[in-house]
Amino acid sequence: MRVHVADHPLITHKLTVLRDRATPSPTFRALAEELVTLLAYEATRDVHVVEVPVTTPVAETTGLAIATPRPLVVPILRAGLGMLEGMVKLLPTAEVGFLGMVRNEETLQPDIYAERLPDDLSDRQCFVLDPMLATGGSLIAAIDYLLARGAKDVTAVCLLAAPEGLKAVEEATAGREVTVVLGAVDSHLDENGFIVPGLGDAGDRLYGVV
Ligand code: PRP
């Protein structure tokens, strides 16, 4: 597994405002979107491209275009939805599939409650969006699901991770084509499975308490 942790003052600045408990939902949503766009630049570094001819006003030359099959962006509902617009802004030709997952707050085990994805993911590059990588259970389940459907590789974009969850994802995906791009790796998980210092419950902060 490849891990890339953003190292940029603009990203840390925006993350700092996200972490602040006083930041209201509208600002939180706008910042989450901006952060994803910045992380998407790194996450798409290995996006498949093909050479294409292009005629400029001056000469003929060769450029690059995103290859087919088109990349698939998969936000994990709910909180990953807050990252979708920021991602497709940078990758407008991508298709979008949805996975609804909820983490049982007692067992911390993930449960898939909704799925809307193309049947065949053969040769697809998939970009999974989920702001929080806590125990890693949700991301491992999502990656397993996509690879089992034939996805070529999976790149996860997360705003924050706990070291415990990152290690779990690394162990669970050993030998497979997985990349994780992160805004930051925090200190640890608390006894309730929350990232510390973290930013609280991203889904609740984006969309309200359920
Ligand atoms: C949160 C978060 C991740 C998951 C992370 O979702 O958005 O999907 O928990 O935890 P894990 O790494 O321990 O699996 P939550 O279950 O709160 O659902 P929500 O997005 O609908 O609020």
- For the residues shown, what is the average pLDDT? 95
Task: State the helix count.
Answer: 6
Shape: globular
What is the percent of helical residues?
25-40%
Distance between the termini: 33 Å
**In the residues, how many domains can be counted?**
1
Helix/strand class: alpha/beta
CATH class: Alpha Beta
Order of helices and strands: EHHEEEHEEEEEHEHEEEH
The CATH architecture classification is 3-Layer(aba) Sandwich
CATH topology: Rossmann fold
Beta-strand residue fraction? 25-35%
**Counted beta strands:** 13
Residue stretches low in confidence (pLDDT < 50, at least 5 long) are: none
- How much is the radius of gyration in Å? 17 Å
Largest sheet: 9 strands, mixed
- Which ligands, by name, code or SMILES, are bound? 1-O-pyrophosphono-5-O-phosphono-alpha-D-ribofuranose
Domain Phosphoribosyltransferase: 5-208
Pathway: Pyrimidine metabolism; UMP biosynthesis via salvage pathway; UMP from uracil: step 1/1
Catalytic activity: UMP + diphosphate = 5-phospho-alpha-D-ribose 1-diphosphate + uracil
GO molecular function: GTP binding; magnesium ion binding; uracil phosphoribosyltransferase activity
